[in-house]
Amino acid sequence: MVETFGDYKIGDMYVYSIWQHSLQQDYKGDKSTYYYKFVPRLSASKITGYDLSYGPLKDVLFAQWIAKTKNVRYDYFPGISFDWQVGGFSWLRTIFYFENNAKGSWNDQRIHIDYGIPFRNQLGDFRIVGTFDYTLGLGDYPEMIDFKPELHYDLGKKLGYQAGHLWTGVVVNPVRNKYKIKDTPGFRTDQFSYGVFIRYSFF
Q: How many Å apart are CA 163 and CA 154, to the nearest integer?
């Protein structure tokens, strides 16, 4: 898995990509798959040169979500994004998307939230980061909820290296109606997954 975030003169962009390969010898079908997405955002404040902040609102942006899965056409979600200034958060963003899925139709809408909350205690430096996605379930699709909080621990700083690069932690990911497929007794799409990770940030 590779992800990156860049801040630019007219906005910012987040890129995420993952490749997976099944180790099951009896696995049927394609054993490998990939997924990637680009989320460029154009900042109204940066483009116009005016400070649009008001109270907790920091900026208004035009956002796009462009995603591709192996053997599936592109998803394209344009939307509007709000960045917030909230005490205790490193960042807090909400994005409202109109979904144009791989089937080529404007068939749903999505609310996306992502956040970062740093904190420290006697054990060291931590942060909670995560995403929350909710689709409205328009048309023939069910509602989908995808919540993915992660707890990060700055292992590099604890070992005496530069802070903010080497992280370890845990992640949980409860999902309702995964991939917007209705959960049924014969095909379960309500899922709960968890894991541990080691992560290195180059910047």
A: 7
